[in-house]
Q: What sequence folds into this?
């Protein structure tokens, strides 16, 4: 069985990481712990007690896995997902903006690719701008989009603050995710071989028929690969979009708040929630990919 | 009564502009192909045999001279769907079943559902692929894939079949088998076939007319009308007539200096 043989290496690496994490916690939290002992005039603490204390501080520099997972448990399972104390509440705020941005970005990416493949003028005029757009650090651009977008949406269009914030984040998400989709789809739509295009020509097929019967199905493997990259980028975009403008909800806001108030455990639990979301999103795209391939009669791997 | 020419080329020349300068792929080719003929084009690489086939199909544009297909320009003939083209590779769509692959030209040409089903059944029977309708290309051998691609070219019942080394990638046993099947198919359907090949026995076995070509520049060096009977079992290839024609083809190839470079 493939599944079982995959599991052992993964678990080994995981165990190694956990060991490193706990060791690191001793080193990083040790100085603070010693300070605490000194202030409390405690001397002669046995080493095992010292280690246990560094692993269970209130505000550790590096929280230990069990602290992070306790925080995760307390903020997900033990509170209703509708209140701002729940991490699930924040995860959903981020996820919804991510999904909106991803759909927007993928749609835009596909549209751009179709235009680029079908028109040499578009290819020459659009492609350099598309590449240039990704050379600007998103951290420089995000506050701009959020602030300007937020003001335009609430001011000019009279959108309430929450949807306006949502749209601004989705735009940043889309900005990050359209690029891999465009590049992948341009390659995919150009992937049919010459004889397959010649064949369509011998049938006197229209451009639309060539597109739907040949280019689009040929491009699907490229689309799914780039969407996996795109969906992860969307999540990063949404989180970055939550950091400026004092947003109060979302994983990005949790990260920022955690760092303001020295709540490292909160930062780590938000980080882990973000990586769980990313994994779920990538796996979800992979599942859709598998379903599509089965419907397209792919040879079973 | 004269048999009408399906393809008629006069002083046809075609030059490709490559980064290494112009390459003359075809030079002053004059040739008539009559309805119902089986014409093979044989010659070494670069002799322009595939280019000539592609010029008939309006996949290449001649530089000078004229070529007519069914009495019209190749472009108009293509728009009339006057021919079916079989490429060197089967080029089946991997995401379509065999019957859907055969249906591809019919979908593009807007055939009705009933007519589509009828054509698919008939052409798959012609190439002996009944029972494989729901299979995907990867489930078929190379020879069967190429037969499916022939079925696809026959599906819309064009009178002219252009075949560019269709069996070139197959082993000799499969090739022999497909050759005799192709002859049978040609007799049943009465189509005009233009067939590009590298193989002398294949050309002699199949054709009513053999066009021998040579490279640099691509030109016709000999046109041989075959004297072989219409009925051709595979062992006709050991008869003196067959060997005589094969010898003449070889002679024509040698005359083009194609093997001395």
A:
């Amino acid at each position: 069985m493939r599944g079982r043989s995959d599991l052992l290496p993964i678990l080994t690496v995981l165990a190694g990481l956990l060991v490193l994490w706990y060791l690191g916690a001793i080193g990083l939290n040790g100085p603070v712990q010693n300070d605490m002992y000194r202030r409390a005039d405690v001397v002669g603490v046995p080493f095992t007690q010292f280690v246990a204390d560094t692993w269970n501080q209130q505000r550790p520099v590096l929280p230990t896995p069990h602290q992070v997972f306790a925080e995760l448990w307390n903020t997900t399972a033990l509170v209703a997902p509708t209140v701002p104390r729940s991490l699930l509440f924040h995860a959903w705020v981020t996820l919804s903006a991510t999904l909106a941005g991803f759909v927007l970005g993928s749609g835009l990416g596909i549209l751009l690719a179709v235009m680029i493949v079908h028109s040499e003028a578009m290819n020459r005029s659009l492609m350099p701008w598309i590449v240039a757009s990704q050379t600007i650090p998103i951290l420089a651009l995000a506050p701009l989009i959020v602030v300007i977008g937020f003001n335009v949406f609430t001011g000019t269009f009279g959108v309430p603050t929450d949807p306006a914030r949502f749209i601004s984040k989705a735009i940043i998400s889309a900005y990050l995710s359209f690029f891999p989709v465009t590049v992948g789809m341009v390659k995919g739509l150009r992937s049919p071989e010459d004889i397959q295009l010649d064949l369509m020509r011998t049938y006197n097929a229209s451009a639309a028929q060539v597109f739907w019967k040949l280019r689009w199905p040929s491009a699907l493997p490229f689309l799914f690969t780039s969407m996996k990259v795109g969906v992860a980028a969307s999540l990063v975009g949404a989180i970055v979009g939550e950091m400026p403008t004092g947003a109060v909800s979302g994983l990005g806001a949790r990260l920022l708040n955690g760092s303001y108030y020295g709540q490292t455990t909160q930062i780590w639990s938000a980080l882990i929630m973000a990586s769980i979301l990313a994994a779920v999103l990538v796996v979800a795209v992979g599942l859709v990919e598998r379903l599509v391939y089965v419907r397209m009669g792919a040879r079973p791997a | 009564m004269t048999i009408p020419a399906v393809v008629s080329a006069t002083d046809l020349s075609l030059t490709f502009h490559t980064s290494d300068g112009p390459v003359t792929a075809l030079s002053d080719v004059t040739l008539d192909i009559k309805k119902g003929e089986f014409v093979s084009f044989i010659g070494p690489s670069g002799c322009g045999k595939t280019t000539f086939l592609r010029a008939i199909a309006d996949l290449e544009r001649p530089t000078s001279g004229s070529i007519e297909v069914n009495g019209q320009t190749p472009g108009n003939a293509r728009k009339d769907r006057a021919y079916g083209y079989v490429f060197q590779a089967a080029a089946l769509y991997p995401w379509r079943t065999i019957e859907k692959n055969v249906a591809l030209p019919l979908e593009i040409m807007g055939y009705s559902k009933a007519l589509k089903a009828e054509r698919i059944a008939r052409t798959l029977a012609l190439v002996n692929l009944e029972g494989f309708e729901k299979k995907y290309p990867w489930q078929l051998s190379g020879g069967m894939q190429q037969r499916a691609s022939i079925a696809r070219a026959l599906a819309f019942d064009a009178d002219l079949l252009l075949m560019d080394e269709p069996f070139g990638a197959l082993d000799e046993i499969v090739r022999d088998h497909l050759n005799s099947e192709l002859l049978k198919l040609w007799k049943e359907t009465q189509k005009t076939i233009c067939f590009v090949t590298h193989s002398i026995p294949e050309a002699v076995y199949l054709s009513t007319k053999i066009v021998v070509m040579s490279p640099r520049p691509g030109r016709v060096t000999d046109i041989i009308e075959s004297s072989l009977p219409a009925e051709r079992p595979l062992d006709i290839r050991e008869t003196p007539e067959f060997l005589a024609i094969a010898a003449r083809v070889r002679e024509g190839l040698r005359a083009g200096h194609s093997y001395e470079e």
